[in-house]
Amino acid sequence: MFERRYADGRLERLPDLAAELVRLRVDVIVTGTNIQIAAAQRATATIPIVMVIAVDPVGAGFIASLARPGGNITGLSFDATREIYGKNLALLKEMVPKLSRVGVLGQAQGGFAELEAAARQLNVALEVVDIRSPDDFEGGFAAMAGKRVGAVLVAGGPLTYMRRQQIADFALKYHLPAITLVKEYAQAGLLMSYGPNLPDMYRRAASYVAKILGGAKPAELPVEQPAKFELVINLKTAKALGLTIPQSLLLRADDVIQ
Q1: Which pLDDT belongs to residue 110?
Q2: Which distant-in-sequence residues (6+ apart) come within 8 Å of 168 by Cβ?
């Protein structure tokens, strides 16, 4: 039996939803990103928690180490490294050869040190727009357009993921090629994505649940990294933006959305 709880974009509801699952005495809690993991962690120190997309879980205080988590939390971790961000920026430059300024849209609580390092290596200037609510999206795109950015990198997170269709619509409205790390954004209408395969990460999270239900202790199950990465290109969006996709990109794509 599964108990599903969704905040529907209202992140302030997460503590109450986590507490409700604890009151129901579920056997395992499976949850996605850091803000959701933190809510579950505050709600229980005994019920096993399986992370799916944790960012720096050691630094966030969720686990003691990747090899030996040491508490009631384990699962999968994905850190947006300089290499991954560099790949995203390089893909944008391949799409827009004269690209020199890139807008960054996302929630910047922890900063974007790895992205900034990748941008310096590629000689690309960044214009960061910090998003706090859906009402900030259009103003953010207008601000980036005013700074004459040539493309946008969308930083993943619960808010941008929930509103990915709205973000894709604004990217088209302001005629800005956009990329992110997660396929579902490209499916919603962003131009490209390059990053880990989320369905694969959720399937791997299910294997943690099976092990825990079979008697394994979360404290002793090492935290794993993504195994599959994919490049997705949305040809419909490219056409709407008046862009011709280089053949070299199309040949490397794992999925092309017509």
Answers
A1: 55
A2: 178, 185, 188, 189, 190, 237
Is residue 102 within 8 A of residue 149, CB to CB? The reply is yes
Question: What pLDDT, on a 0 to 100 scale, did the predictor assign at position 165?
Answer: 95
User: In the sheet where 192-196 sits, what is the strand order?
Assistant: 125-130, 101-106, 151-154, 178-180, 192-196, 229-234, 255-257
Q: Give the CA distances from residue 241 to residues 58, 114, 168, 207, 236, in Å, rounded to whole numbers and listed in that order.
A: 41, 29, 12, 41, 9
pLDDT at residue 80, rounded to an integer: 66
Beta-carbon contacts of residue 155 (< 8 Å; ≥ 6 apart): 80, 104, 105, 106, 107, 108, 112, 115, 180
Tokens read off for 3: 């108990």
Q: What is the spatial distance between Cα 138 and Cα 74, in angstroms, rounded to a whole number?
A: 37
Q: Residues 93, 122: contact at Cβ < 8 Å?
A: yes
C-alpha of 20 from chain center:
26
Please report the pLDDT score of residue 111 as a whole number: 59
Q: Are strands 255-257 and 125-130 parallel, antiparallel or unpaired?
A: unpaired
- What pLDDT, on a 0 to 100 scale, did the predictor assign at position 106? 81
* β-pair partners for 31: 51
* CA nearest neighbour of 155 among 215, 202, 102: 102
Q: Which domains does the chain have, with CATH numbers?
A: 11-79+198-228 (3.40.50.2300), 82-196+230-257 (3.40.50.2300)
Tell me the mean pLDDT per 10 residues along the chain, length 258.
Answer: 81 91 96 91 97 89 96 90 84 93 79 81 90 88 94 86 92 96 94 92 95 97 92 97 93 94
